[in-house]
Each structure stands twice: as C-alpha cells, then as structure tokens.
Design brief:
The complex is a heterotrimer. Chain A has 16 helices and no strands. Chain A is an all-alpha fold. Chain A starts with a helix and ends in a 65-residue tail after the last helix. Chain B is an all-alpha fold. In chain B, helix 1 packs antiparallel against helix 2. The model of chain C has no long low-confidence stretch (mean pLDDT 93). Chain C is mainly alpha-helical. The relative contact order of chain C is 0.18. The chains are: A mainly alpha, B mainly alpha, C mainly alpha. Chains in contact: A-B, A-C, B-C.
Chain lengths: 561, 118, 210
C-alpha cells in the first residue's frame, strides 16, 4: 500500500468526522449541526460574492472611458445598486459570523452545538429565501436606487423591482437576528466548566458583541424597508413630502441600522485578526482586557453616530455637531485595538504564513480606512468629500481591505480544522500579496480622484479623471484574479491536500484540541479550562507548523512563560 | 415530576389581581381622555400605558422572579430605543423654522426671525 | 419521567438549563421586536411633534369602541396565558390546554373586531390617497401610520395565534410534554404582542378626545 493509502485508511478508522455523518444532499439540507450549517452559509455567500463582484467588474470596465462603453445609464445604475445590495447584505454581514462564527463558536467554548440548532438551520433558509427574492429582482432588471433605498426615489420615482429587493433584504435581516440570538444565548449558557468570560478567546467576544448589534440594529432596517414597501406598494404616505412626510426620517431609520451594520462587518474581522496575530507572532495578545472593552465600546457607541451619513441631507447643524463629536469618540476604541495588535507584534517571533499576511494587511488597510473615516467625521471636510469617490475609497478600505482580508485570514487559518486538509502555502501567499497590491491599485486612486471632485455613482465623468479610473479598473482586474485563486487552490486541497493534524499551527484555543475535521459532537468529553487565552509565551520555543498536537498547556500556577 | 404539595390557588391569584389592576388602569386612561386636561391628557395616557406595561412585564412575564441577565436583556431594547429617539429628536428639535422645514411648530417661537436653529 | 425527558434537546446538559436558555433566547428576540415597533413609534412621535393639529383631526376618526374592546381582550388573554405557564410548571395538563385555548379564542376575537373596525374605517374612506376625506394633507400621515402600525400588530397577533394553536395541539396529542421549555417562549411572545397594543391604544385612540 502506498503511504497515502495507509494514511487514508488510518483516517477512516478515526472517529467519524462531521463531514462523514450523512452523505446525502438531504442530510446536508436538514442538518442541525452548526459545522454543516456553516458550510452551507460559506457556499452561499461565496456565490453571492462573485455575483456582486461580476456586477462591479462590469461597472469598472464601463468606467474606463468617460462617456460610457457598453452600458446604458439605467443599466449602470442598476449594476452598482445590485453590487451594493448583494455585497452588504448577502456577503459582508453574514460573512464571518455565519461561517466562522457558526463553525467555531461552540468549538471555542467547548460546547456540542449552538443553543438553538434548529433556529440555526432556519436562519440559513431565511438567508436563502431572501436571496431568492433578490435574485428575482436582479434577473427581472434590478433597481437603480443604490443600496441605500433613499426616498422619494425608492418610494415614488424609481422604476424597477424596489419592492422585491426591499423584501429580500427584509427577510435576510431576520436571518441575521436569528444568528445573533443564537450566539448570545450560546455564549451565556454553554461555556465549558472553568471558561469564565475573561478566559474567552477574543473571537468569541467579537461574535458576542456583533450579535448584540445584529439583534438591536437589524429590526430598524426591517421597519424602514417595510415602510418603503408600504408607501410604494400600498400608497401609504410615510415619507411623502407633499403630505408632510420627511425623507430625512427615512434616512434616520435607515442609517440607525446601516451604521451599526458596518460594525457588524468589522467586529468579527477584528475577532479573527486577534486570533491570527498572536498565533503567528507566538505571543499573547497585548492588553486582552482593553481589547474586550474596545469591542464592547465599538458595539455600543457605534449606535450613536449614524447621522454622520446625513451631514448634507438636511439635518440640523446641532445634530451634525453631536453626531460628528460622537463619531470621533467611536474611533478611539478602534485605535486602541490597532495599537494593541501592533504591540503584540513588538519583538515577537513573527512568521508570514498566509493567514498572517492577510491579518497584517488588515491592520494596515483598516488603519487607513479608519483614519479617512475620521476625515469624513469632520463636518466641513465631509461637505467637500461626501458623495465623492473619497467616501467610496474610505469604506472599501475598511470593508474590503479590512473585513474581506480578515475573512481570508480566517479562511486560511481554520481551513485545516474545517476540512482536515492543508492548502498550498506558496499559492496562498502569492494570492495574499496579489490581493494587497490589487486592492491598493484599485482604491488608492479613488481617494485622489474623490478629493479632486469625482462624484460617486456617476456614469459619465469629466475627462480629467480618466487616468485615475483606468488605474482603478486595472487594479480591480488584479484583485479579481487574487480572489479567484483561492477557489482553485482550496478546491485542489480538498482532493490532494496534505491531511492536517489536530493543531497544525500549534495554536491555543479549544477548537485545536479536537481532531481536524472535528467529530459531529465536537468533543468526546467536554474539556475543562483553567488557563488564560493565548498562552503562547509557553510555546515560545516550540517550532511552528510541525503538525503535531502539542503537549497540554502549563497552567499559570506552574509559572509557564 | 410535579410537586404534589403545590397549592393550585396560587396560579390564579396573582394573574387575576394583575388583570384587575390592568383593566382599572385601562379604564382610567380611557375616561381621562375625555376630561378636558389639555396638555396633560397625552402624558397621562402614556404614563398609564407605561405603568400597565411595567405591571405586565414584572408580574405576568415574571421579570420580578427572573435573574439579572433576563432583566438586563428586557431593558436593553428600551435603552437602545432611547438612543434612537434622543438623537433623532436632537435633529428635529433644533431645525430652523423657515430655512429648514421640519421643526415642531411649538419651537418656532418667533416666525419672523427665521434663524431659530442652532 | 420519560415524558419530561423527551423535551431535552441537543446541546443542553439538562432541562433546567434548556429552560433558562429558551428564556434568554426569547427575551433577546423581544428586544429586537422592541426596536422593530420602536421605529414605528419614532415615526409617529416625529410626525405628531411636527403636526399636532393634523394628528388631532385625524385621531378623532379612530374607533374608540373597537380599540377599547380589543385592549380588554388582549389584557385578558395575557392573563390566561400566564395561568397556562404557571399551570404547566405544576403539570396541570387540562388547565394548561384550556387556558391556551382561551387565549387563542380571545386573540381570534381581537382579529374579528379588528376586521370590523377596518371595515368601518374603509367605509369612512380613511385610506390615504386621492379621495381622503380629511384636511390638511398631514392627516394622511396619521392614517398611513395607523394602517401600518395596526397591520403589523395584527400580523404579529395572527402569527401568535398560529404558534399558540400549534403548541396547544402538540400538547394535547402528547407530542410535547406539559413541562416543555417552549411554553415560556410562546408566552413571552404573546405578552409582547399585548404590550404593543397597550402602547398603541393611547397613541391611536385617545388623541384629543376631550
């Protein structure tokens, strides 16, 4: 027998992994196993990522010339709207929580599953159902309102499938809420013995705080969209200025959710980075307690800043001042986190595996995105930069440079745990570097042209911006290649990848104490936890990636590290 | 599993007492609405509604017998709602009377000076 | 008792913990519902602050009788629901099912009166649009909010009736034990629907009655 066959036979004799428990499609579609549900989500959101990506690929192609290439202006409007709607609600919001959160939360706290497994499956079906509505809107011709559905365009003047799109987003919102409820209950009620709150990995804290935001913010979005549907479909005046309605009220309701929504996108990313950096720096995280307080502060204060999207919408100057001040405040906890990640790296033994490359990229790109956010929080600067490409560049730095980078970091970090296979490190590093270069090539020019006056959402533009647009579009092509590469090498790894041991990264955390992939019930025996998280100082002399499960962590009392 | 030493009367007493209180409060709200109390009508009605909700939540939803986590979650929605109300009204209550439509009329004291806003 | 044990679900270690878990879960959902309806209340509050006179004119047209009867029905249904929960903790099977049935009946009666109220409103032409009978135009904002607020509430109530009904049937046919942890979830949701009506009542029916 070949070595590979012996190894395979050995795996077959191991306790059944969750992947082997049921081979039919029905067993996947009726599963209540959080790990399988995570994979269902992962497949779905990947599909939507590429649909949203193709939409913006067409837009970036179109923008190579100032007077249009192959799209009508109407088609152009519909494409960027769909890009926004799909990327925000069908990719970014569920991305890390519904995939990695679902897979890892029970593992990290030593539980058999989430608190409400059937609700978990239901949340995926809600997602699929909402997505179906939106795909219907897409193939029927789409909407041109932008992802923000502003009234009175959406309620009164827009042609297109506003009601269908709004309904789809309404439904997927409840998927978010269900996930949030599940995670909070799980974190409160199912932690392993000895796992006190301040022994939890920061990823768990991130899932907890993001769930708070999902549960409290999403219903307001649901209502704002319901009111748009009521006005558009049933003629009930809510925002109609002719009858005394205020379009700015819609914006208040919409942004009350949509600003916390960006924290829904960034908090899990911060959680992932807080897992990856300590592992590949072989150091405990700097300032664990403040990292926790910062997550909570972002989640809470993030609810009080939404008006900074409305500085020029007709809000009063006093409200502008209040929201601007609070927006400066909310930057502080984010900055604390960046300082702490940096301090973790100081004089550490850093290695540059793909997850670490993405995580380091996150820290840099998130910093730029966050700082440019501060520019925009300042009212006079925002009046110059609002509705220009400066804003687009800002939020893509945080959402793509930030969240998507962290998503990739997490995907690579936990891929061995989820699939039991190692991916090709060389190709992954190449993809990570290409992503970083492509991303900057795409979005840095957008800061410049936005500051110089290039408006967002415009189909035709003055010739003077063409050079920047071409740079940006070429960058987008590079970025697209970088995003397609993982599909290839991850797919390859599923069949030919080297089998991973329980803990290929020699990482701390309960998820690494069980086999790769884990058995259906996660742990044969619920572990007891007596150590602080990120006890990497005890590992400082253990080499990286020797693919053996390390000896058990020394307890703090024995003076380890 | 059921405890045979229970007294069935208990399960009727408190809910019925709360029902009586709620109905009386509801009646009070309804009747007071027809009294000429001018500016006090609405605050009184809302206050009574608030008391009814508190009674319902404390005694029928048994918050009084629940642990701290449940009470915290119960209050959380209201706290976040207060953020929404407070900051939204910080906009509406400070809009200028003539330059910026959308200011509550009670705040537009002097219509001739259209610069009542901040 | 095998009956009670059958209620235990993965991943809960014991029934008490599961019951606490259901409690946490349903209250989190209630928190989200507070914000869902809260957004509507914000809209109402903003427009009432902006157009107090129009809201007075519009509010005078609501059907106080139906609104009050419906308040009484829901308050009573909350009490029958509470008794059902307490009875379930003591294993009093017939009391539980009877009280659940009563709760459903009261809820259904609410919907019936709502239907009658809606017909009365429509007969008065109070559907915002070209032929709206009241002036100024801002009265249509009140009535737009009225239809949305009462409509969303009625949908929540209908869903509640369906859930309570299904739950009662499952208890009756012994598909679930009387001590089922789901009881608390069902009851809490029902009480919340009642809560919304308690707040809607003065906002919609007691506007400038004096």
């Amino acid at each position: 027998m070949t070595d590979a066959a012996i190894a395979d036979a050995a795996v077959d004799r191991e306790p059944a992994s969750y992947l082997g428990a049921g081979h039919t499609l029905l067993s996947w579609l009726t599963t209540t196993d959080h790990k399988r549900i995570a994979i269902l989500y992962a497949v779905s959101i990947t599909l939507f990522f590429f649909i949203g990506g193709i939409a913006i690929g067409l837009v970036r192609l179109e923008l190579m010339t100032p007077h249009g290439l192959f799209l009508t202006s109407d088609a152009y409007n519909r494409l960027f709207s769909l890009h926004g709607i799909i990327m925000v609600w069908f990719f970014l919001v569920p991305s890390i929580p519904a995939t990695m959160g679902n897979f890892l939360l029970p593992l990290m706290i030593g539980a058999h599953d989430v608190a409400f497994p059937r609700l978990n499956l239901f949340s995926w079906y809600l997602y699929v159902f909402g997505a179906a509505f939106t795909v219907y809107a897409l193939i029927s011709g789409g909407v041109d309102t932008g992802w923000t559905f502003y009234t009175p365009l959406s309620t009164n003047y827009a042609t297109g499938y506003v009601v269908a799109a709004a309904a789809g987003v309404f439904v997927v919102g409840f998927s978010s809420i269900a996930t949030g409820v599940n995670f909070i209950a799980t974190a409160h009620m199912l932690r392993a013995p000895g796992l006190t709150w301040f022994r939890l990995p920061l990823f768990v804290w991130a899932m907890y705080t993001v769930s708070m935001v999902m549960v409290l913010a999403t219903p307001v979005l649901a209502m704002s969209l319901l009111l748009v549907i009521a006005e558009r479909a049933f003629g009930l005046p809510i925002f109609d200025a002719a009858r005394g309605g205020d379009p700015v009220l819609f914006q208040h309701l919409f942004w009350f959710y949509s600003h916390p929504a960006v924290y829904i996108m960034i908090l899990p990313a911060m959680g992932v980075v807080s897992e990856v950096i300590p592992c590949f720096a072989r150091r405990t995280i700097f300032g664990y307690a403040f990292m926790v307080y910062a997550l909570i502060a972002i989640a809470v204060v993030g609810f009080m800043v939404w008006g900074h999207h409305m500085f020029v919408a007709g809000q009063s100057p006093l409200a502008n001042l209040v929201f601007s001040f609070l927006s400066f405040i909310v930057a502080v906890p984010s900055a604390i986190k960046v300082f702490n990640w940096t301090a973790t790296l100081h004089r550490a033994e850093i290695t540059f595996e793909a997850p670490m490359l993405y995580a380091l990229g996150f820290v840099g790109l998130f910093t730029i995105g966050g700082l440019t956010g501060l520019f925009l929080a300042s009212v006079p600067i925002d009046i110059h930069a609002t509705d220009t490409y400066f804003v687009i560049a800002h939020f893509h730095f945080v959402m793509v440079g930030g969240t998507v980078s962290a998503y990739m970091a997490g995907l690579h970090f936990w891929w061995p745990k989820v699939t039991g296979r190692m991916y090709s490190e060389a190709w992954a590093r190449f993809a990570a570097i290409t992503t970083f270069l492509g991303f900057n090539a795409t979005f840095l020019p957008q800061f410049v042209m936005g500051w110089n006056g290039m408006p967002r959402r415009y189909h035709y533009y003055p010739d003077v911006f063409q050079a920047w647009h071409v740079m940006s579009s070429v960058g987008a092509l590079i970025l697209a290649v970088a995003y397609v590469l993982p599909l290839i090498y991850f797919g390859w790894s599923l069949i030919y990848g080297r089998r991973a041991g329980a803990n290929p990264w020699n990482a701390t955390g309960l998820e690494w104490q069980t086999s790769s992939p884990p058995p259906k019930e996660n742990f044969h025996r619920i572990p007891r936890v007596d150590v602080e998280p990120y006890a990497y100082d005890a590992f400082v002399h253990l080499p990286m990636a020797d693919n053996r499960t390390p000896p058990s962590l020394p307890s703090p009392a024995s003076g380890g590290g | 599993m059921s405890n045979s030493q229970l007294r069935p009367m208990h399960i009727w007493l408190r809910p019925i007492a709360v029902w009586v209180a709620l109905v009386l409060l509801g009646l009070a709200s309804l009747i007071s609405a027809y009294l000429p109390l001018n500016a006090f009508n609405t605050p009184l009605n809302l206050a009574i509604a608030g008391i009814m909700v508190i009674l319902l939540w404390l005694f029928l939803m048994d918050l009084i017998g629940s642990d701290a986590l449940i009470r915290l979650i119960a209050v959380a929605g209201l706290v976040w709602l207060s953020f929404m109300f407070a900051l939204t009204f910080s906009d509406y209550f400070s809009r200028a009377c003539e330059d910026q439509p959308g200011r509550p009329p009670a705040f537009c004291v002097d219509q001739n000076i259209g610069r009542g806003g901040f | 008792m095998s009956d009670a044990a059958s209620a235990l679900r993965e991943p809960w270690p014991d029934l008490d913990r599961q019951r606490d878990g259901v409690s946490v879960g349903i209250w989190l959902f209630i928190a989200s519902e507070v914000l869902f309806f809260g957004a509507l209340f914000l809209g109402y509050a903003v427009y009432r602050a902006l157009y107090p006179e129009a809201f007075r004119i519009a509010g005078a047209e609501t059907e106080v009788f139906y609104g009050s009867v419906n308040l009484l029905l829901l308050l009573t249904s909350s009490v029958t629901m509470t008794i059902a929960v307490d009875a379930s903790r003591h294993g009093m099977r017939r009391t539980v099912i009877a009280c659940l049935a009563l709760t459903i009946l009261l809820g259904a009666a609410f919907l019936m009166f709502k239907g009658l109220e809606y017909s009365a409103d429509i007969a008065k032409g109070l559907l915002p649009g070209a032929h709206f009978p009241l002036q100024p135009p801002q009265t249509q904002l009140f009535w737009g909010l009225y239809w949305v607020m009462t409509g969303v509430h009625a949908i929540h109530l209908a869903i509640g009736i369906a859930i309570v009904g299904a739950f009662a049937v499952m208890l009756w046919r012994r598909l679930l034990p009387i001590e089922s942890p789901a009881m608390l979830g069902v009851a809490t949701y029902w009480h919340f629907v009642d809560t919304v009506w308690i707040i809607l009542f003065p906002l919609l029916y007691l506007v400038d009655r004096s």
